[in-house]
Amino acid sequence: MILILGGTTEGRLAVRVADAAGSPYWYSTRGDLQQVECRNGTHITGAMDEAAMASFCSENGIRLLIDAAHPFAAELHRTVASVAESLDFPVVRVERTYSGEEASIRWCEDYEDAVRQLEADGIARLLALTGVQTIGKLRSYWSHHDCWFRILRRDESLEKARQQGFLEDRLVYFEEEDETSLISRLKPQAILTKESGDSGGFAGKVAAAVAAGIPVYAVRRPALPSGFELVTGEHGLRKAIERLVPGFFPLRSGFTTGACATAASKAALMALLGQQVGETVDVLFPDGERLSLPISSCCLNGCPDAGSPPVLQAESATATVVKDAGDDPDITNGRTIVATVAFSDEPGIHFLQGEGVGRVTLPGLGLPIGGPAINRVPRQMMESNLSDLYDGGLDVTISVPGGRELAQRTFNPKLGVVDGISIIGTSGIVRPFSNEAFVDAIRREVEVAIAVGAPRLVINSGAKSEAFLKARFPGLPPQAFVHYGNFIGETLKIAADLHVPQVTMGIMLGKAVKLAEGHLDTHSKSVVMNRDFLKEVAASAGCSPAAAGAIDRLALARELWKGLPADDARRFFPAVLARCHAVCDNVYPSLTILLLDEDGNVFE
Length: 604
Hints:
Rossmann fold; 4 domains; six-stranded parallel sheet; 36% helix
């Protein structure tokens, strides 16, 4: 069992991660104002001292504490550390990310130090963005200087300010004005804030003050107790839980081939630059999170010159990573991903095809024809991580021994990728799931949408289509948007079973053409694009012979958006949409279907 502590942005992140497991857990916040949907968690409120927390953990079989509290909740951090030590179990700290220190910031060790510095610098007019809990700590300053405090507009916060004797007309409210407007209206000589990290809006506060030409005084966050395992995002938290509480997640997550290639290429460049390469390498992922991947081997290539620096000894360096896809049935699981990095006279990072990596022969994949089948996001991951170490030209060769044989078990030959597999991954993380668990999660999300009174259920395939649909339906609550993944039929059955009165489905063309043919499960393992079917749809819609030629040249269905003549497009896409309606009406009549192109344009 797990206990999560903290009613913060990081606390809500931890709840999302824990909920995805489907296992029970506890979520504790100090007060009852934090509204968090816990599908599988039990929300408890009230501060716990060391004795109360230890008793709770013992009585409920807690095996892991997740500290997701505010960085300035120093007393809670100490309590968590003490309880974990006495009961001998680990603590995972969900830490915020912190921007680099601006030279213009006046750093303060605590609030007493802040008052000393403000007084010494002659600051007599201050805007304090430190919250209602700090009013008492700054009494010696505001009792004889002009000072405004920004607080949340809550009865609880107003009462705390009154109890401290602070004038109500010197309170400003978080919900009503941003920092730029406040500074413009109040004209303070400086602002005081806390080192609250990126999720606490620290960078925005600093930027507003700098733009106004006034100094920023910032109280440093207190140090965390030793022994906490730090994570900075959802992926790292899930990996930590999987390792520390085996069985909490029914299936382990893993890393994509793109993430493995990034780790191997970074390790190789580190070796080439003469840096020490350990057992793991930290990799920056697309969402900004940093995770460590294990390195299997790393070596310099070429003939070293005695006495020369390492960077001059080698022509190149090679590193390997063994892919761990978790419990996902991935054909590349356990395979070796190899990266060889060499200096180049040409600026930029150049990707070369190694053994077992495919070569692109057809348009439509968004990759250079003739180049290696390394998809866009893995390329960006490698470019970002390598550019942090070296700003010169590099040749990066990615290899997958045995990849040529593996590729025959994929759809690469149909996509015009020959001689090997593709290096793929949009997030860097492989999220395994069973069909049953995924469909059960969909049902729970639809139930939540009903519970919060959403007037319409908007189902969609993933993050991209959801972003387009949220822009179209800005008034709907976030719970109204539910991912169906590939399980269109199951999702519509759930909506029908639960008597959802109004359902809109957003669908991209790749899934739409499979659905139009009658496939309510659109996973690529179950069904692929059928060109003969698409030509039949085009012919029945009255399209010209040129449409059939365009369909024959397809690598991916989305190419049809630009590949069809205009007159044919006006006939073809409504025909596909009509076929989708015919298939779905058997499960959920009166469904609204929105066909989305790659730019978010809607066809209905």
